[in-house]
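Complex 233.
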Amino acid sequence: MKRFTTTDRIGDIVVALPKSAELFQHYRIDYCCGGDRSLQAALDELHLPSTVTDELNALARSISDRGDDWQALTPPQLVDHIVMTHHAFLWANLPKLSELTTTILRVHGANHPELKTLHSLVGALKTELEGHLVKEETVQYPAIEAYFKDPSPETLKPALDVIRELEAEHVAAGNILKQIRELTHDFTVPEDGCGTYRKTYALLEATEKDIFQHIHLENNLLFPQLANLHSAL
Ligand SMILES: [Fe+2]
Ligand SMILES: [Fe+2]
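Predicted structure with fe (ii) ion bound:
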């Protein structure tokens, strides 16, 4: 395993060492939409010590990451994994989150007016992401499949043409998630919160984690793979 330094790109670090996503999440280092920056840039921005790099290297030494070797997958295999894992998660849980935030707004909204904002943010996240998933599932992913059956610049073009748009939508979703985390004080349930409140916040946190991993696989692995195919044509 290579030794990481602060000049390494964050996205490349998570591609090489998937478990580093947990360390980055712990320090609130954005590794998906912000994966294009160097580790040093993120440390500076968040005023974090350079010892984070030591922790990263200790992690690299302590684990074998063989179970999560996404780099070994071809783009169609990676797409299969993304759809079965991350798209399935969102299709199942975005409606649940919408229902749960409506419930806690109705029950606790009088004592917790911030739940009105949370309700709007979750609504915006659901609208943004459902449109995004449909675009990927009906435009980009089928084009990737078509290209691997019949490789040509024409079959690859629809997959490449939407990359910018998809990346911008990732940023938009990431910004909504950031606002949700701030509004809920890192998903801290208030003392008078009920079981549904706890369930909502736990699912919000799980959703943030899943989306970060999802965006990382697309921004830092799938899209660069497609760009490489294009330059090899
Ligand atoms: Fe996706
Ligand atoms: Fe995406």
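Residues 82, 86-87, 136, 214, 218 surround fe (ii) ion (ligand 1) (CB under 6 Å).
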